[in-house]
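Input record (one chain):
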Amino acid sequence: MNAPKPLLTALFEPRRIALIGASADERKTTSRPQRFLRKHGFAGEILPVNPSRSEILGEKAYKDLESIPGEIDHAYILLNGPGAVEALAACGRRGVKVASILAGGFADAGAAGASLQDELARIVAETGIRLVGPNSIGTVSTDPPVALTANAAFAVDRLRTGRWAVVSQSGSLIGALLSRADARGLGFSRLISVGNEVDLAVGEIADLLVDDPRTDAILLFMETLRDGERLAHAARRAHAAGKPVIAYKLGRSQIGQELAKSHTGAIAGSDATFDAFCRRHGIARVSMFESLVDVPALLVNRPSVKGKRVAVATTTGGGAAMVVDNMAMAGLDIAGPPQALVDWLSPFGIAAGEGKLVDLTLAGAKPEIVAGTIERLMADDGNDAVIFVVGSSAQFNPELAVEPLLRFARTAKPFAVSLTPAAEKSLALLTAAGVPAFRHPESCAEAMAVCLLRPQPQPVPVLADPARASLDALEAGRDSGFDERRAADLFAALGVPMARSMAVPDARRVAAAVTEIGGPVALKILSADIAHKTEAGGVALGLADGQAAAVAAREIERRVKVHVPAAKLDGFLIQKMERGLAEVILGYRRDPLVGPTITVGLGGVLAEIYRDASTRLAPVDEAEARQMIGEVKGLATIRGYRNLPLGDVAALAGAIAAFSALAHSAFADVTEAEINPLLVKQEGEGVIAVDGLVVLH
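The corresponding structure, as predicted from the sequence alone:
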């Protein structure tokens, strides 16, 4: 592998470090970086900067940066607010390669802090200095040892070396990961807290780590996504290099998103869109914090496995049932024992063929039985991976059912061990031997699911240049405002079938339009100012003839003027009533974090309540659109559920792919678009849209 890039070296392997605002008071946080550097064996020069001191903790101190001779690789700024800004400016003038800022109180602290953060960005742009933070608790390397951090967790007696790197948007969580890994004998290669990411962000640092010869896996703790394009690039490069990228992200719930925003000063973004981002670019997302430590052992230096059948053997039925239950929820299949194993176990009095779980019972907690069981499961072509769940013997008698497992490290098939009791000795034995071992059944199941089902980077469909008709429809909507008629024109030009309709300027023309289209019809108010017409009383359905429609038009006008008095009304849309087997909502959005996204779900007026949907980065092709359809539970009714009539899934996939063409740069000012509902007819009869919405910048 190539030599480390200069930026990676300045970040993780600096030789000369300036500590601006260093303190001699060991009770203060600002003393920790100097103490931790020396405690953990930093062999370079430490250059404390404090105008009131000539010496700090045994090191010569300097009154300012200008007093320090020679080059400075990395400066850790331990000052707050304006002092930190001034120090960064001094670093820029001095030619310091990289600076980190410990203090918060910037974009995470309202308007005044945001203004200070803007000053940091200006200095970076003008001087070319690279910045970590602000709100960065530090940067750590274990080999060579560089504990440049204020995190109290690094008061540990020693830092274990390892081959996994951590990039975290939370400084304190680095300490939590460190302690969890250390407790089981694991270490890391690099750890970095990126804070508010004024300059260096998760994506660029991950990209550096792809080329780091000391790193085999990249672990991400994320609260938001600021440099999605760079992270996508890094994840694809990491996959090609055989380095898994594993992410844990806050913000699965609404309150989690709000907490992330208050902490970082940045929006968390939609959880579904982040999932789509990970899926597209081959990032393994985990739902448990513990999994950031647990999962890499099953992924590193292991080729992708095709298959999702897992054989489970155990000495404790209840413990194994928890693992099996969680694996089933994650989409894995449980493989039953091969007949060869059933026959082999029978003389021991163990009946293994009565279910899919191979329960050796307490009688089977013997080295020869445990080892023989794993050997036969490994040899079986009926499974793709193996898990052994150890019961109470793991705590006090590891020689019975744990030590026999040590020789199954680095097997061709994925192999994992789940320990039911708190058995730290057994956990350490397995970890030291290189056998992936887990203290929680949920984490074990998640790790195996990630191992077998982790996404591969997907090719991004290439969009053809849009047809002239679609560009003309977009321009017409820009000029007059996007009411439903203009939205329908755009969607039809993209290739989405739209219900036959006619627009009229006022109620007097309604009856004649109904006669031309033929009843029954839907009657809708036209207004670019009204996004949800039903809520405003602007829709009437099932009107049989022109007379009924004319009466309905006057009533709609009355209701709308009461509900939305300021809205500009542009007439009425008369639309042929249509029927289908299912109602689908089709949504497009330019997400501020990940870019264009496409969502398909169960539609109708209750779509927001059901929240039964699948999301991808846009554009998608028809094959990926079919995958999305398969993920929407409510659309099982059109996929052949219980002999119900088949819907036109092929036509639906085509409409989804066509709609996703809004991701083309020609439609860059379309921030949102929606069809609800898109009616799915019987197989061979197509789909048809009966409502549409477009929102521009």
